[in-house]
Request: fold
Amino acid sequence: MKDRDTRLHEAITGIHRNIPTYDPVCADDMALIEDHVDIVLQEVGVEFRGDPDAVSLWKNAGADVRGECVRFDKGMLRSIVQSTTPKSFTQHARNPARSVSIGGNGVVFAPAYGAPFVRDEERGRRYGTIEDFENFVKLACVSPWLHHSGGTVCEPVDLPVNKRHLDMVYAHLRHSDKPFMGSVTSAERAEDSIAMARMVFGAEFVDRNCVIMGNINVNSPLTYDAAMSGALRAYARANQCPVVVPFVLAGATGPVSSAGALILSLAEALAGVALGQLERPGSPAIFGNFLTTTTLRTGAPTFGMPEPFVSSLAAGQFARSLGVPLRCSGGFTSSKVPDAQAAHETTMSFLTAVLSGANFVLHTAGWLESALVMSYEKFVQDLDAAGSMHTLLAGLDLSANGFALDALREVAPGTHFFGCAHTLENYRTAFYEPEVADTDAFEIWLENGERTASERATRRWKEMLAAHSVASLDPAVDEELHAFMEKRKEELPDLWH
Amino acid sequence: MKDRDTRLHEAITGIHRNIPTYDPVCADDMALIEDHVDIVLQEVGVEFRGDPDAVSLWKNAGADVRGECVRFDKGMLRSIVQSTTPKSFTQHARNPARSVSIGGNGVVFAPAYGAPFVRDEERGRRYGTIEDFENFVKLACVSPWLHHSGGTVCEPVDLPVNKRHLDMVYAHLRHSDKPFMGSVTSAERAEDSIAMARMVFGAEFVDRNCVIMGNINVNSPLTYDAAMSGALRAYARANQCPVVVPFVLAGATGPVSSAGALILSLAEALAGVALGQLERPGSPAIFGNFLTTTTLRTGAPTFGMPEPFVSSLAAGQFARSLGVPLRCSGGFTSSKVPDAQAAHETTMSFLTAVLSGANFVLHTAGWLESALVMSYEKFVQDLDAAGSMHTLLAGLDLSANGFALDALREVAPGTHFFGCAHTLENYRTAFYEPEVADTDAFEIWLENGERTASERATRRWKEMLAAHSVASLDPAVDEELHAFMEKRKEELPDLWH
Reply:
C-alpha cells in the first residue's frame, strides 16, 4: 500500500507481458485472412498520391505501378517487411531511465492523441491550448502508469496550424523526460520534429537509435496522401519509427463487415511498413490498427463496440507472424463525458489491446467523444485502468509464496486470513490500489460527499499537476531549440487552417 | 437496426460461444495447481458442520473423516465429479422457448443476486421490497440479453426472513417465463422452492429434468455449514442443480495471494460438486467461483480488480478439464453509484467471465456497492454490456460476405463505403446497437439535455418495465401455489432476523 504521492514519478519503463496473448483465430483461418489480404493488394492495390518518390521506390522494388496506384504480387509485402524490419527496438528518452523497449513481450502505454477540444468538470468543453497541451504532458510525465509522453496530446488551437508542431515537440522535450512522438502533418514538419530531437540526443546518436516516433494515419481505404507517406518516409529515412495506422471505421472508411475491415487494415499497414523499409532498410516501424465501427443512422463513429474485438486480436496474431511490433488503442469511447458509457467502452478496447499483444498502446488516457475531446478527469480515471493492466499482465505467481500453503494450513476452516503470517508478510504489495476508485463503505462515501468517480477525478488531476517536476534541459540545448523554433517561425507565414 | 421496443421479449435462449476460451495457463502449471489443490484437500480437508448426513456420505465414499472434518486422497474428488456429473444439461423454463442449455459452448446470463438494498436515481438507496423484487424479475423477463431470471434479485426485506423465499419463487414463476433459482438459506426452504417448481412442471418431470437451481455459497475457507450443505443436497436429491460457489475474498476468506485463493476455491468447489454426486449420482451441478480481493486497510471487499483475472481464467481451464459446467460473475463493482468506476470494474469482471468460458454468468446486471445494492440504472447499463457480449462471442464471420471483397473492389481508394452495395445489403444487422450508450454528435447530445449514461438509464428501465407482459400461469397451478404458500406461512412463525 504505497502512498499515492510517493508513487508519482516512479520510473516504470513499460511492462513485460508475462501471460500469453489471446489468439482466438486458428492457423487455417489466419491463412485464409492473409489470402484475402493478398487479393486486395494484388487486385485493388494502394494509391500513393502526390508522392512520386514513394512511387519510384515501389517501381524499383518490382511492384506493379500504374500512375499512383501500386499493386503487389502475393507475399511481396510480407517478404519486404519480414526481411529487414526490427523485431524490437529501444525508443530512447532524454532520461535513459525512461527509455522503453518496443516489441516482443514489451507493452508501452501512451496518452490519447489528436483531440481539438479539452474538457474538465469545472471549465467544461473548450478548444485546446498550448497550456492544456503542457498540462497533459506533465500529467503523463508524473504518472507511473504511462511510459510514453505521446504526441498531439491535444491540439493547441491557439497556435498557428503550421507552426504548432514546434511548440508541441518542445513541450514534450521540456516538460517530460519520457519518450514522445513528433509531427506527421507534413514531411517538412516531421523533419522539423526530428531536427529538434537531434539537438537533444545528438545527430549521430539519432542516426543509429530511435528517439522519436510519428503516428502515420492511412487515408483509408487504400490511400496514402503525400503528407502521410512523406512524413512516414521522413521518419524512416532518419532511422526513426513510423507507427503505421490504417484508419478503418467499418461502414465508412472500410467494409461494414469485420473480416472485410480487417483485411483492409492489414493490407494498408503492410504497405506502409514496407514503404518505410524501402526508404531505409532496417529502420524501426510499428504495425498498427484502428479498427472501429459506425452508427449507420448518422455516420458517426462508435468505439468500444464488440465487433472489432476478434478482428483486433487477429491483427495481433498477424503482426506476430510478421515479427514486427504492434500498435493498438486503449481508451476508445464516443461518450461526451467520463461516465459509465465512457468507462465501459474504454475498458472493452483497452483489454482488447492488451490481450492482442499490443507493444504500443496509444490513447491509453484522456480520450472522450470519438477523439474530439481530451478530458482531464477521464485522463486520471484511465490511469486507474492502466495501472490495473500492470498487475493483470504480470500473471499468476506460482511460487511457494504464491500458493500460500502455509497460510491454508495455519488458518482454521471457517475463520479468516486477515492476521495470518502470510497476509502480514505480503499485504503491502498484494493488491493493486487504484487512485480514483472508491472502495470505502457506503457510510464513509456518504460522509465524503457522495462523489462519483469523475467528481473525485478533478481533485486527483490537480494533485498530480501540482506534483509535476522534471530535470531541466541542458541550457545550451534549450537555447539551440529556441533559436531553431524562432527561425522556423520567422520563415513560415501564420496559417490557421 | 431493430427498433428498441420490438427487440424486447425476443426469445434468445443463451449464447453459443463461437470463439475459443482464453486459456493463459500452460498444462504443466495447471498440473502444479492441481497438485496444490490435492495437498489442501488431503492435509487440511473440508468441514461439514452440523450435517451428519453429509459426513455419512463422505464416510461411505471412503474419505478420511475425523469428526466434521473430511480429508480426501489425491484425485478422489476429481474422480467422483468426473464419473457422474453431466457435462451439460437443459434447465427448463415454464415457457419451453426460454429453456437454456448449461455447459459446453453455451453461455447463459442471469441478473445480480443477493442485495438487501435497491437504488434508483429518483428515490435513492433504500431497503429492497417485494415490489422491487418483482420489478427486477420483470426487467430480466423483457430483456433479450438475460436468458435467466436469477434468484434473490434483491432481498424483499419487507417480508419475514423465513417466509420470503415463497414469495420470491412465486414472483419468478408468475412474472417471468425464464428459468430461475430457488432458496438456499436452509434445506427446508430449498425443499419449499422445489415443491413449488413441482406444481408448475409436474413431479415426474422434475425428477427427470432440471427446472430450478440453487446458488450454494461455501463458508470459505473450507467450510460448509448445515444450511449450505443441506440446501445443496436438497437440490441434488431432487435432481436439480446446485451452483457451488466458494466465496473467496483474497486476504479475508482466502489467502492474500492469487494462486492461494485459486487453489482454495477449486478445493471447495470440488468438495461441493462431489457431495451432490454422492447424494444423487448424475444430478446436474455447476462448478463455480467468486474470486475477488479486499482493501486491507479497511477489510472491505474490492471488485473488478486485476488480481483475479488470470486465476478466474485458470478456474475455467480447471472446470473444462473436469468436464463440468462453469459459473463466473459478471457485474462486480464496489462503486456506490453507476458511474465510471462501476462500469470499468463491471467490464473487467464480465469480460473475464466470458473469456474464461463461463456457462452461467451470475451478477450480469444490476450489481452495485459490493452486492449490497441492486440498482435500476446499473441494471439497464449492464444490459448494454450483456448485449455486446452476444456479438463478441459470435466471433468473426469469414464467409465471402464477411470478407467483402466485392465492396473492396467497388469502392475507390480514398472514398467511402457508406453507399456501396455490400453496406446496403448488410447495414441492418451489421452492428450491435446499445440502448443506453449515446453515440450522437456533441451538439445533439447537448440539445438532448447533456445527460450521462446513468441519467439516460432511468428512462430506459421505466420503458422496459412498462413493456413487461408474460403469459399467465395455469389458474389451477396458480391456485395450488397460493394454497401451498398460505399453508407454509401459517405453519411458520414470522421471523425478521
